[in-house]
Records
---
Amino acid sequence: MATHAAFMPGTEAKSHGVLWSWITTVDHKRIGILYGTSAFFFFLVGGVEALIMRLQLARPDSTLVGPQAYNELFTMHGTTMVFLAIMPLSASFFNYMIPLMIGARDVAFPRLNALSYWIFLAGALFLNASWLFGVAPDAGWFGYANLTSRQFSPTASIDFWVLGLQILGISSLMAGFNFIVTIINMRAPGMTLMRMPLFVWMSFVTQFLLVLAFPAITVGLILLMFDRFFGTLFYAPAGGGDPLLWQHLFWIFGHPEVYILILPAMGIVSEVLPTFARKPLFGAPVVIYSGIMIGFFGFGVWSHHMFSVGLGPVADSAFSIATMLIAVPTGVKIFNWIGTLWGGTVRFKTPLFFALGFIAMFTMGGLSGIMHASPPVDLQQTDTYFVVAHFHYVLFGGSIFGLFAGIYYWWPKITGRLLDERLGKWHFWLMMLGFNATFFPQHYLGLIGMPRRIYTYAPDLGWYFWNLVSTIGAFVIAVSILVFMVNVVRTQRSGPTAGDDPWDARTLEWSIPSPPPVYNFARVPTVHDRDPFWLQKHGDGHGGKPAGRPAPASAAEIKAIHMPPPSYWPILLGAAFLFMMSGALISIYQVVLGGLLTLYCMFRFALEYHRPPSGGGH
Amino acid sequence: MTSHAASHVEHDPNIGITGLDHRKMGMWAFLGSECMFFGSLIGTYLSYKGKSLSGPTPHEILNIPLTSVSAFVLLMSSVLMVLALAAVQRNDMKWAKVWLFSTAMFGAGFVGFQIFEFTHFVNLGLTLRTNLFGSTFFTLTGFHGAHVTGGVIWLLALWALALRGKLGPQDALKVELCGLYWHFVDIVWIAIFTLVYLIP
């Protein structure tokens, strides 16, 4: 499945053009860029959905959108931001950075990696196609049964949602298998598990969460699909079914999903802080153990999303205690990050601003999280704007700030050009201001009784002022994102080039050119420390001499590097699969035909290198 | 890719730093995920056990002797799978073809039993829509049957490669991956057979 024929950079572009080279690419860096740009596009889509909602709520009795459109907007906003923005933005960093940080030339299964991306794109387009047919999903991002039954949702809206999420789940599962194997099996010589960079570690935990949590929602969605298409009784109370089954299956997935969204950002912050404080991550092994513990406990707290169901005092107590316990490793990490800055030679660059923003905002989200870990408190807060404020503090204040730290940090590595610091800081301060103006008042709105998911409110409820503030804040966030886009466009045209190592950083990806050559490492490095590149440049800080940079590879060595050739089977397999899945909404014949095409593409994919033309033995 | 650029020793690019093959490790990760998949389906079955509002109920309708025979057929196919892999590894392609084909046929036999069972139940008035037992039973055993069917297609593909002389000892790992999957599907059936059929 890996390297069989010699393939050198640029050869494919000469023969077939640039577009073809991107369509058939199996290079983890290009796939990372594809993930990143697609995710940013859907981040904008989800953002526009949010802005329309905020405009609607800016004043009482507003008629900008009706209740049905509002339901569609909040459903698609949540689904888009979780599955089409934050997850693929994280995946973009997994793809681009993990092989570079562990000293590998690609992932373990390059074509499977391309397939993951194309199936992700298929799912994203499928889900959003519902807008074109005027039947966008409208049952909320966690689609509670039996609102989603055929009886209460007779149109195809929920079908788009169910099938779209199944497609996206398959993409995530394949990526999960790929990165588990890549991280275990493709580390450079000497890189023991405990020498792996923190971002790789947090991503590693995330892959296990993906692989073990997605089957639960897959089953939940299959049962829902069967209820809707075949008339089974899984969530139908009239037939003895229990809508709570959906809640359990959804949240057994849904809570680990929260950590799938936050752990990669925690990993990014754990890379950015040591670089800009110019000292190693404080207590790095403890941060690693904490990440593992968060992943482990993440599977034992799902019912805290269901306190208002009335599961009984024993279940409530157990899940409440587990939820409070999970705050411990999270708190440990926060202290480790602060400890990293303490006594460091701190350089206040944009990535560090976002990392610090992450720590502050995520801590606030964590604190309100501990509040509703307590069932009696949760009963007051559930389904109010307090909860909306809470999860935006962890997912926007946490994940998005962390991901922007990663974008500013690794941008020069990926593009070879630095982003502008002045615009970067404008972006940061506008986003910080806009974010807090948007979401902090929502704590208060929730506590004075404003429920989530209402499309308007009466003027005499006293909610007008803070809703207006929240809407203004949302537009400030939008301006900050515009500043970021201006920054990208301007610096790509005429920005200063970055060089290999603009931040005087610590890990392997900075030891190679920016942007990296297609083979990444001319010579596979040997690793002796968690900060191998720092060791080469500056020594261990205890009087040990710098190890020095290894001699550059000769032209003959570089010529001998074998890289996997491009393949068009990933995109064809993805297209066949999309054709099959969309058949569920059109005709059984399309499902059968699509299934046969998918099977055919699977065989061609599997046998592409079964007997390599070069006559190699594997 | 992991091979050193300057190395002249031919190095299998699928073997990683742990000495394990990427594909085998990926297969184990996939099977771990499958455990959660069948765990969720079995959990659903058990949580709805005895909650049907109307009949037929499991032990009015389940035929344990017949299913014991089909379970035996499936378990024996695992033995044949072991023989197939051993034959491929020692480059005995004549017997490899025999064992691969008979593994697939035993698997197909199991699926045949299942089709007969499903048809019989439908004739007795139990469908996906009849009651919770029907919904959970057909979904759980149906997904298992679909996994067996996928395995049969995989085995037949390997058999077809062998017939065309395109399978040899250097492909033993590909047969082993299919074997891992096949044994996993068997083990899942042991769990389903015990929990659904044997325990009253």
Note: The domain at 22-198 of chain B is CATH 1.20.120.80 (Four Helix Bundle (Hemerythrin (Met), subunit A)).
---
Amino acid sequence: MRRLLAAAGAVVVLGGAVAACGSSGNGNGGSSPAAAPSCSKSGIQSLLHTKGKLTVATDNPVYPPWFIKNTPSSGKGYESAIAYAIAAKLGFSKSQVVWVHEPFSSSYAPGPKAFDFDINEVSVTAARAKAVTFSNSYYPVQQAIVARKGTPIVTNHSPAQLKTYQYGDQVGTTGLAFITGHIQPSKQPKVFDTLAEASAALEAGRIDALVTDTPTAQYMAAFQLKHPPTVLVAQFPTVGEHYGLVFAKGNQLVTCVNKAIASLKSDGTLAALQNKYLGIFLKFPTIQP
Amino acid sequence: MEQNQSPEPVDPLVGLPVRSVGGQWAPPGTFATGRGPRLFSPGGGTRATVVSTISTIVVLAALAAIFLLAPGARAVEHAFFNPTDMWQSFIGNPKQGYYSVGAAIWLNIRMFLAAEVLILAFALLIALIRHSVGPALFPIRILATGYVDFFRGVPLILVIFALGLGVPALSLPVISSQPDVVYGVAALVLSYSAYVSEVYRAGLNSVHQSQVAAARSLGLSQGTALRYVVLPQAVRNIIPPLLNDFISLQKDTALVGTLGVIEANKAADIYSETVFNFSSFTVAAILFLILTIPLARFTDRLIERDRRRRLAGAAR
């Protein structure tokens, strides 16, 4: 009897192991291109969060030039326009695109996602790609400095001088990573939960400068932070950073979305949208960190 | 330990000797604790230990099974308990964009220690004002009452924001150019002093009026009676609830991170949002536990000691 029990136990353990292998096998299969389905609208139905709809997530609030008037469904603003352009390539009408709010910090939490993809100026890094699946680039990013007009950093920003300022930024941004990784200032930067808090600190003179992507930086300097007036000091050379759409890890829909992005690139839509929404923001001197 | 002088342990509530089921006196110091099976079966200690061990294992195994066998167990394990990420966030790497959670907790400790000293003094002052009876002090009493009402009612995080963003914006000399940590600690002191002053006040009220009367009749002044008769008794009574508030204070130092200060929780947040993994929060949680658990156990010991003293008094 005891032997029988032991044997039964072994079977259970073995079965568990086999099941575990099976499930992990499926997981790996998910990201292999061989298993990719056809990218026709009917072919991707089974991959969608809600059948017949493309569910797109972004944060709340969202800012120009990425979204206009905090209304993702307007189709205006670079990221909103990109989302609708991708949807059109996949065969969805405008009314079949559903927007949901997803805070940045929960967009990468484990478990089922409440969206097909998240579009929220998320920079692609190798470490992040372990937790989520990224699409190919829909925008190459450069970082830029925003400071109050007339403060020392506006004129004195040699690499050595840049190290002497008090920086601040939003938590988890690549702007913050650029400060700590490339500028390497002598004072520890201040890290805020939102870009709005970092901006308030800049206005109040609690920080000398903040670093963010050039379009956002120029929007802040030109329209948002005017009391006291601020200025985009300069932008830094590219470090190969780019924005990607966030998918649940292993979501096969990314293959079809990447095809859509590639076709938007080749037919000039991507460049046209960048020109339309980001064009005025991109003519700035480049300085070394 | 006075119960040792008494020939038989006495139940303080009933006033009768406590007799165990086995016919033996419960060992001194363990009677009437309400804990442990020894009280009722002096001979069954081993069996009780076995039963409690087995039940502990069953409960822990059930909890572990829920965690390990859930469909998303692997994902949760990777996102929250990944050893590599835990270690990376603990040691930090500014070149990769994140700071050491282990180093950042030191800031929490310093904020806590500074705040605690200030709170103990400031809250006592508030409590003494509210406890005072002189008619001339009436306006100050009103102010103190308003202070307590206000800061107990306003969420701490709003106080932190108001001080951390508002005071620098005033552009006053000295006051407006302090480091963010100073505003954070000031907010903690303002908010917690309101709570702690009420604890003090409860302690002051717990000392019977006859104590003051007796002290005054011996010729002690109002102030001397307060200092040497009322306060020592009051403070002894409130040490457990005071420590309870300070355990809470240790954790709330994390809220100062909203001002941009890189304390442990903020460092964990930076790591999490930089590499998309939550294991750094697990590290911060463990560090906070390491801080708070010793204080919690110390509080338990004080409560137990205090309880024994009172029971000893009742037994005599």
Note: Chain A has ten helices and twelve strands.
